[in-house]
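Checklist before submission:
- one chain only
- standard amino acids only
- sequence pasted in full

Submission:
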Amino acid sequence: MPILSVFFGIIVRMWHDDHPPPHIHPEYQGFEAFVEIRTGEISEGRLPRKAAAIVKEWCLRHQDELLENWERAQRLEPLERVRGADQDD
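Returned file contents:
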């Protein structure tokens, strides 16, 4: 599964040809979640509260890039890296 971004110890991945709705798979210190791109909300799994808040803010800030990657993934094309939350202004 391709890595889209790494920040604050959080690894964000996306699978090719994955099922809807558009989502990412963040992992942090043994926790994993399924986060919907359009809302930033965890719909499956679990992340610590602070990590979940960081992922949500990052997801919403980079929503366009993530949705573009989702479309690439559906077409089985290479995915683009997304700037991490530790590099956001």
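Reviewer check: The first helix runs from residue 49 to 61.
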